[in-house]
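Quick one, probably user error.
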C-alpha cells in the first residue's frame, strides 16, 4: 500500500488519509472524536475484537453501539466492515493533521538538546509561518541528546538542521571531498 508523508513527519497510509478526510467532512463535535480516539488508544482488546475474523459483523456492530457515541458509530462500523479497525489511531492522527491543514496550521517537529525559550520558539514560529504561508504552527517537541547541541526542525517534508551533529557531518563531508 502507498504511504504519504503527513505533516508531522509520521507516515500515514493512503487509506488512513482517505478515512480521515471522510471523518473531517462529517463535521462531528470534537469531543465525540476525542472520546473515540481515547477509547481506541486505551483498549488494544477492542481493536483485537473488531479485527477478529471469528467475531461476526453483527457482533462487532453491537460492540460499537455499546461503547461509542451514536454520532460516530456509523463511521466506525464502516471502517470495521472494511477491515480498518487496526489503523484507527492512524486515522485519528491523519484527521488531526488534515484538520490543521484546512485551518492553515502546519505541524512542525522540533528535536532539541535544550528546550527553546519562548522567544526562540516565537522566532521559529514566525519563520515557519512566513516560509509555509501558514496561519499558525502546531509543535511536536522531542528531546534528542544525540544532536550534541542546536536543533533539528522538520516541517512539511523539509528539514532545517542547525544541530552540532549536522554541522560536524557537513564538515566531515567537506574535508573528505578534498
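Nope, works fine. Designed sequence:
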Amino acid at each position: 500500500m502507498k504511504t504519504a508523508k503527513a505533516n508531522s513527519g509520521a507516515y500515514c497510509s493512503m487509506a488512513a488519509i482517505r478515512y480521515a478526510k471522510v471523518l473531517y467532512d462529517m463535521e462531528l463535535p470534537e469531543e465525540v472524536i476525542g472520546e473515540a480516539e481515547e477509547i481506541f488508544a486505551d483498549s488494544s482488546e477492542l481493536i483485537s475484537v473488531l479485527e477478529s475474523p471469528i467475531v461476526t459483523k453483527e457482533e462487532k456492530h453491537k460492540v460499537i453501539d455499546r461503547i461509542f457515541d451514536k454520532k460516530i458509530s456509523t463511521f466506525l462500523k464502516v471502517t470495521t466492515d472494511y477491515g480498518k479497525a487496526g489503523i484507527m489511531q492512524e486515522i485519528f492522527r491523519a484527521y488531526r493533521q488534515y484538520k490543521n491543514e484546512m485551518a492553515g496550521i502546519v505541524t512542525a517537529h522540533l528535536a532539541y538538546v535544550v528546550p527553546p525559550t519562548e522567544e526562540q520558539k516565537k522566532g521559529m514560529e514566525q519563520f515557519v509561518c512566513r516560509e509555509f504561508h501558514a496561519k499558525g504552527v502546531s509543535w511536536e517537541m522531542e528531546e534528542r541528546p544525540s544532536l550534541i547541541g542546536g536543533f533539528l526542525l522538520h516541517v512539511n517534508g523539509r528539514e532545517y538542521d542547525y544541530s552540532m551533529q549536522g554541522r560536524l557531518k557537513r564538515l566531515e563531508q567537506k574535508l573528505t571531498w578534498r
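Confidence is low (pLDDT under 50) at residues 1-9.
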